Amino acid sequence: MAKVLFVNPVIREEDDPRHVPYGIALLAAIIIREGHLVQVFDANAWRASDAVLTQVLAADRWDVVALGGITTAYRSIKQIVRRAKDIAPQALVVAGGGFLTSMPHDIMRFLPQIDVGVVGEAFVSFPELLRRLDAGNRDWAKVPGLVWRRSDGVSHLNPEQPLLRDIDRLPYPAWELFPLDVYFKNSMALYSEEGMGARRRLDINASYGCSLICRFCFHLGIAGDMEQVEENGERDVAFGYKRLIRYHSPRYVVSLVKYAREKFGVDFIGFLDENLMTMHQSSGKKWLTDIADLWIAEGLQPQCIRDGVPHDPERCTGVHWGGTSHATLCSPEVLKAIKRAGCSHLVYGYETFSARVMKTIGKGATPEANERSLRWTLEAGIRPIPNQMIGFPDEDFDSLRDNVLAWNRLGLQVKPFFATPYPGTEWYQKYKSRILEQYDGDLEAFLLDVGDATRLTAVISKKFNAVEIYGLRELMVQRDLKRLAEYEAEWNRLHPVDPLAEEKAAWARRFGGAKPGLTARPILTP
To answer: Which helix (H) or strand (E) holds 388?
Structure first.
């Protein structure tokens, strides 16, 4: 049996630790079931010094130091693997997750301390790696889903590991290995009254993948999107439009929540799923309503909903929850059903209220669908959370105005995220040369800089620079349409050629010069 130390890297240094790393918790449970000895150092929860990390790495003779995360954790991961090789040189350093899956050869080049990488889903590949290690066999060439170093130091990518089809075979996450008191202290989710009052929140993944092809989004090998391509005789990854949608049975989901309630006393569950409504559609429009029915039947329905009284966190029993939705896939019927089971909020990626820009991002929605879903969600008693972005490649003054006018009509207060070309997205591939130009050709500098889209990194707008995007967002937030128009006139004076002229002309020809509009009826928040 192997002694495995999982290290959860720091993510979102500017925020408190809020989410137990679900992937690590699942992998820990899987390999514990196989007899391995597991410890976790949650650097994100503890925010401890380098000295503490050193003590942890020296505390035992680890066979494996394993870590992973998305690209925004790259800076922390870089520091951890360096320290791991210095303090525990006998340990095999294994990395996985989105940061590596999106660019396996680049990461193996940037981080020579990583011995083996798990590309894509690790549920099968990582346990197989440990079995070989136990047997004294370090020939990684036969294990699908791994990237490793040949004797000359050059990385080699094995054929991909097929995705686990029956995900109900997965054990429950090993939440007990993490400092839950730290995470419970930060349970409050500023999305709904019930979320704000949460005191013991845990998050779950009820599904993997999404049917949509948004050009700004990444799935990174868990949605059937990952392919392998040959380049100069070497395999590499590419991400396309293929999809393999997987979701837990309603029984698994509700039993998992009951387990979390009974063992850890949770009062709120956050669904980490990319898009709950995709799964509902894929199941013949039964999945969410079946979960809701079981939620109630198993006694998880919040008392305030059952009794029809205002929520009181001091008295309410049961479990409230929140997750994600999609403007074109929701319906009044499913929204009302999940409200009865305790759904308090749904996050909608509205992205923009510009019909022209919406057509360019692969969202599969329209401004009208955005408005309709907002109204339906409010009518169901669920709070809709509208996520939007600024700095799209085809962003223009008209699209900025469309958003402000929609906010005014709909009673929304929004501070948009910045459009960011994360590795693994279509945007990243399309604009990679432009990204590199902004970082003097240094790809790793971009990885070290990229964050959670609350600050601007690589600009992919065809029309606006970084300073303009920051300033224009502030004008939007302030609803300052007068100054927006004044700057538009100034911009046009300084730029005789509009880089979006051709796209806008094509749009005008298609729609006769008119932009599909939204209804003027205001929607009031409850």
So the answer is: strand 383-390
Distance CA 281, CA 169 (A): 23
Q: What is the 3-state secondary structure (H, E, C) of 55-71?
A: HHHCCCCCCEEEEECCH
Distance, in Å, from the CA atom of 198 to the CA atom of 210, rounded to the nearest integer, reads: 28
Which contiguous run of DSSP H or E holds residue 350? strand 343-351
Q: Residue 525 pLDDT more than 80?
A: no
| Structure-derived torsion over alpha carbons of residues 81, 85, 89, 91, reported in degrees to the nearest 10 | 10
Query: Which pair of tokens denotes residue 73?
Result: 């954790």
Q: Which structure tokens are listed for 37?
A: 């000895």
Pairing relation of β-strands 207-208 and 246-247?
A: antiparallel
Over its C-alpha atoms, the chain yields an Rg (Å, rounded) of: 24
Lowest-pLDDT choice from 78-87, 159-168, 233-242: 233-242
Closest to 125 (Cα-Cα) out of 145, 155, 101, 97: 145
Pairing of β 268-271 and β 201-204: parallel
- Which secondary-structure segment (H or E) carries 228? strand 226-231
DSSP type of residue 296:
H
Tens-digit pLDDT profile for residues 104-151: 999 999 999 999 999 999 999 999 999 999 999 999 999 999 999 998
pTM for the structure as a whole: 0.92
| pLDDT at residue 190, rounded to an integer | 84
What does the DSSP assignment read for 384-437? Answer: EEEEEEE--TT--HHHHHHHHHHHHHHT----PEEP---TTSHHHHHTHHHHHH
Helix axes of 397-410 and 481-494: crossing angle, nearest 10 degrees: 170
Q: Would the CA dihedral through 41, 46, 52, 54 be positive or negative? A: positive
Q: Kindly list the structural domains of the chain, giving each domain's residue range(s) and its CATH number in brackets, ordered by start.
A: 3-159 (3.40.50.280)
Q: What are phi and psi of 212, to 5 degrees?
A: -85, 165
Query: Residue 371 contacts by C-beta under 8 Å, 6 or more apart in sequence?
Result: 406, 410, 518, 519, 523
Nearest by Cα to 32 from 127, 99, 117, 129: 127
| Sequence-ordered list of residues with C-beta below 8 angstroms from that of 97, at least 6 positions apart, any chain | 23, 68, 69, 70, 220
CB neighbours of 67 closer than 8 A, spacing ≥ 6?
6, 7, 8, 9, 77, 80, 81, 94, 95
Q: CA 196, CA 185: separation in Å to the nearest integer?
A: 12
Provide mean pLDDT across the span 151-155. Answer: 89
Give the ranges where 135-249 is alpha helix by DSSP (H). 180-185, 193-196
Strand partners, 271: 204
Collect all residues with Cβ–Cβ distance below 8 Å to 358 and sequence separation of at least 6. Answer: 351, 352, 365, 366, 367
Q: What are phi and psi of 137, to 5 degrees?
A: -110, 110
